[in-house]
Amino acid sequence: MFKKLKLYLQRMRKSFRQGYSKKTACYRNTSKFLHAKGKFKCNIHGDLDPKKYAKGFMGVQFGLKYRLLYPAILTADLLFGKFKKTKVPKADHNYLLKRFDAAYNKAVRNWVKFYIYGGNINGKSKAYITKKTKEHSAAQLLMSAKQWMITILLYDQAYKEFFNMFTLEYAKELQKELKGKNANHLIYHSKIVDDVAYFKLIREVKENVNIGMFNQDEKKN
Question: Does residue 32 sit within a domain?
């Protein structure tokens, strides 16, 4: 219990530091847009007022995420962790949830591998990538949130049935969109573009930032 409490306090301290500190790179990069004038056109967010968007981003990033959601998940882990389901039981009626769990885990690994580390750890062993995924605080948050969602679904059949309906409807929409094509999408992974700096023009991003085609169907670690 002492170790759990110590880890909880360490993560809470980090979360609040991210939420309140004005010294982080994320805050510095975002604050540059608070006094911007006019709109950025043809950017990947659409035509937006950078000042208004920066205020919204800071509210969500530093207020909602680091001061509320992350602490709430960490507190749930501490107080109710004994009830949390980390794996989906093998059963016919859990097949959709099982597929979701597998896809979510793969997506987090790919996100850490290709986005967080910019593809620099691609080709490393599965154990190494798993270690890096477990060490990254944002990946921890994503995994814990998923586990609590699965926990609620396994304990509450009403929400489980909603999940089944949603999953099948989502699958239908994806089938319409993909029409048998490979599941690809463009991602960027560069340290010189951070958060609200998404406002960079598409042409400028293409010329100055590493952009790669991420193949969802590619078989990698």
Answer: no
